[in-house]
Amino acid sequence: MSARHSVAGSLFLALASTLALAACDGGASQPPVTDAPLYGSALTGDFDLVNSKGEAVTNRDFEGRYQLIYFGYAYCPNVCPFDMTRMVSGYNMFAENNPDLAGDVQPIFITVDPERDTPERVGEYAAAFSEDLVGLTGSPEQIEAAAEGFFFSYYRVDPVEEGGEYDIQHPSVGYLVDREGEPMALIPVEQSAEAVAAELEKWVRPADG
Q1: C-alpha dihedral over 167, 168, 171, 173, to 10 degrees?
Q2: Which tens digit of pLDDT belongs to each residue from 168-178?
Q3: Which string of b and e fits 191-208 if b means at least 16 CB within 10 Å?
Q4: Over 60: is that where the pLDDT of 27 sits?
Q5: Which of 148, 137, 158 is nearest to 49 (CA)?
Q6: Phi, psi (5° rounding) for residue 161?
Q7: Domain at 48-203: CATH architecture
Q8: Where are the domains of the chain?
Q9: Rounded distance, CA 37 to CA 30, Å?
């Protein structure tokens, strides 16, 4: 064997070895998130509510998964339905592109209208958007405490005409809570499904990453 062939053979083996190592490392975990915008804030992400079956549900029940949370109410006439559609559609887009992570994100709807949004009602409302969406309600005190955990503000607007339905004013915003239960980012549910999916892509990591 000539020296040229010997050198070429050595280079080929070295290149093959490098490519093999690169292939093995192709699924390496992403670095953990340390710079999420809500980290270090006063938001706690705590809640103690009930689901559509009347069962107690707390934020601790979702530890190990991300929580994609929206506060609203089922009787909301013209804001919540669009926000919820964008949030769920964005989640579905993310799930389609990241099937291995889809089950690691739990979409949650929390009502701010406990007077009308019974467990049965929030269950029906959530199911209208997605079978993956969990609807939560509770007593006025429980709802208030949950909203305080996210610095979420809302207030009732009484009807102009006697016998009419009251409204509840609240901001259009979603929240992403990490696997440890710490709020990490706001989700732009008021923008588009693509914007929601992009934020999930940015922050959601595998359990070991």
Answers
A1: -100
A2: 999 999 999 99
A3: eebeebbbbbeebbbeee
A4: no
A5: 137
A6: -100, 145
A7: 3-Layer(aba) Sandwich (3.40)
A8: 48-203
A9: 18
